[in-house]
Amino acid sequence: MRAKEGCNSCDAVFERRDEPLSAEGEKMMKQELLKKIGSMQQIAYARKIQFEEGRAGGMKAIEVKSGEISFTAMEDKCLDICQLSYKGIGLNFLSKPGLQGRNQYDTNGAEAQHSMMCGLFFTCGTDNVGGPVMDGNQQLVMHGRLRTTPAEHVCCDTYWEMDQYKLEIKGEMREAMLFGENIVLRRTISTIYESNIVHIHDEVTNEAFAEAPLMFLYHYNIGYPLLDENSRIILPTQKTTLKGENKSTSNWNWDKFSKPVDNLPEQVFYHDLIADKDGNTTATIVNDALGIGVQLCFNKKQFPYFTQWKSMASGDYVVGLEPCNCHVEARVEERKQKTLKTLAPFETAIFDINIIILDKDKKNWITD
Predict the structure, then answer these.
(1) DSSP state of 20
(2) N or C: which end of the chain has fewer CB within 10 A?
(3) What secondary structure does DSSP assign to 276-332, as a single string?
(4) Is the pTM here over 0.70, yes or no?
(5) What is the largest CA-CA distance in the chain?
(6) How far is CA 89 from the centre of its chain?
(7) pLDDT for 166-225, tens place per residue?
(8) How far is the C-alpha of 7 from the C-alpha of 26, rounded, in Å?
(9) Residue 86, SS3?
(10) DSSP E strands, 67-136
(11) Which of 66-87 are b and which e, b meaning 16 or more Cβ less than 10 Å from the residue's Cβ?
(12) Cα–chain-centroid distance for residue 343?
């Protein structure tokens, strides 16, 4: 098995500590904390839950609390995170259909919009990213099937490792068909108590005996109250193109937000982001009035493309931050140009991303 070229920079950020502690210091930190509580579940836990009513009735999920950070990963929908809050403030967008489990129409063309709940993020791919399209005689569904694929072999764990209390979720999603593909996504979601980072580590493997397309996108969706007219988005972009236009410009107001406007059309921007010498780059949204923000940290070797979805419409008030390994809605054209990324039989591609919570009071704030 061989792996696509990537970078462990996200892991490096996740594991970094400013000053190494002695063995005695690590032991004391754990003991001093445990003196103040009866059970770690008082302040940090990962527990399986199940919703009971409405469209979400029967859906299984995993609820995680880690100090001031809380989030819910949907066991029945690719272990995607539907809700994330910090200090009790919601950071994600949830669309009109609300929380819901898998539906029979999820993979039926544009009908998918009836179940597109968004949440903090949903996973797009691996055969399609974007709207439904015909590729030859193959019907490709909106944003692919991964986002509604239930997880198998799911486990959640919390444990001490020296001075760190770790919370971890693991699971496996399989996208397969008779006489067709056999793609496995193995996902790990992890964080550390009192850390401001949630780390997503994905390994996508082709377990079939034929080459398979590899289109992969994280669809992050930020909503009110983090998103409002005073919020600002920070992207190290060197080129920006508006969908439907064939030229680059800096005058599209992609970085500015208004109050909700009734029936305002959505916009989609394509950005070429600047990265450091190792390929690391970021996408950030902050709300100065709230003093909080969200930053995505990823690597351009894994995600060479970045799409921004902007909707200031009333009731659909959201900004999407979308690192991806392909151009959105370009499956057919990329196949014609022979630029469609693929996985060889038993090849594995690795994707990492850090979700970093920014807080004015914790000295990780961005001023520019």
Answers:
(1) P
(2) C
(3) -TTSEEEEEEEETTTTEEEEEEEETTT--EEEEEEEEETTEEEEEEEEESS-TT-HH
(4) yes
(5) 65
(6) 18
(7) 999 999 999 999 999 999 999 999 999 999 999 999 999 999 999 999 999 999 999 999
(8) 29
(9) strand
(10) 69-74, 81-86, 89-90, 121-126, 133-135
(11) bbbbbbbbbbbbbbbbbbbbbe
(12) 21
How many CA atoms are closer than 13 Å to the CA of 275, on its beta-carbon side? 20
12 pLDDT band, cuts 50/70/90, is: very low
Helix (H) or strand (E) holding 236: none
Distances (CA, A) of 18 to 13, 15, 21, 54, 353: 11, 10, 10, 47, 21
Long-range pairs for 57-65: beta carbons < 8 A, 24 or more residues apart: 57/101, 58/101, 59/99, 59/100, 59/101, 59/102, 62/154, 62/156, 62/169, 64/156, 64/167, 64/169, 64/189, 64/191
As beta bridge partners, residue 90 has 85
d(CA 77, CA 59): 9
Separation CA 312–CA 310 (nearest Å): 7
Helix/strand/coil for 34: helix
